[in-house]
Amino acid sequence: MRSSRFLSSRRALPIVTAAVVTLAGLGIVSPASAETPALGVVSTNQQTSTPLGDEAPANFTIANVKVGANVRQGPGLDQKILGTAALGSTVQSTGKRTKTGALEWKEVKFGTGTGWIASTKLKAAGVTPPAPAAPAAPVVTNLADEAPGKYTVSGLPASSQLNVRQNPGVGQTILGGLPEGTTVESTGKHANVGTREWKQVKFKNSTGWVSTRYLAKAS
């Protein structure tokens, strides 16, 4: 009798196995197997996001990727992908950032809205230095009038002329030039521009200003 019951039990095993196989074929699985990744079911546990302090908005270049960086609806790898920012392209952050798991994420402008990109895919874009400030205009100091006199243009570099300008200073409009050896007559007016002295001289029925650096008192 004992042997008979054992044999009967062994014969029932294939029937149970077949039933399990049949149920699996119908898509019915046990609660434990529903958690198995092999069946394509992903755990619904989400990573915790920790907001970080806001920073100044800035431009970033997409880097450390082969093609592009995914822009997601929220900070986290489990968030919906809105699109892709191409490698080398520039994105502008809003200043908001957060940490999800071990990754820091930055909110960036994307399309007509915003999205999130992992900071490991971003590098600070080159900052264009501000244009240098224009140099301050030299200070013109008018000096007390002196007696008019005659001067000879002297000491010019070879094949050059002494510029006659509308007002004292190297940045003023050039009215013409005086060759080496030319004699001119001053009006008595003179001024310092920075550390250089200028004299007003008669020039083509009018007046102009020349640097005293190339003037010698006529004998």
Question: Could you characterize the architecture of this molecule?
Answer:
With 219 residues, this protein is mainly beta. The chain is built from one helix and 16 strands. It has one helix spanning 2-25; strands at 49-52, 59-62, 68-72, 81-86, 90-100, 103-110, 113-118, 122-124, 140-142, 150-153, 161-165, 174-179, 183-193, 196-203, 206-211, 215-217. Strands 1, 2, 5, 6, 7 and 8 form a six-stranded antiparallel beta sheet that branches. Strands 9, 10, 13, 14, 15 and 16 form a six-stranded antiparallel beta sheet that branches. Strands 3-4 form a two-stranded antiparallel sheet. Strand 3 and strand 4 (81-86) form a beta hairpin.
Could you write a compact summary of the structure shown?
The chain is mainly β and 219 residues long. It is 11% helix and 42% strand. The protein has one helix at 2-25; strands spanning 49-52, 59-62, 68-72, 81-86, 90-100, 103-110, 113-118, 122-124, 140-142, 150-153, 161-165, 174-179, 183-193, 196-203, 206-211, 215-217.
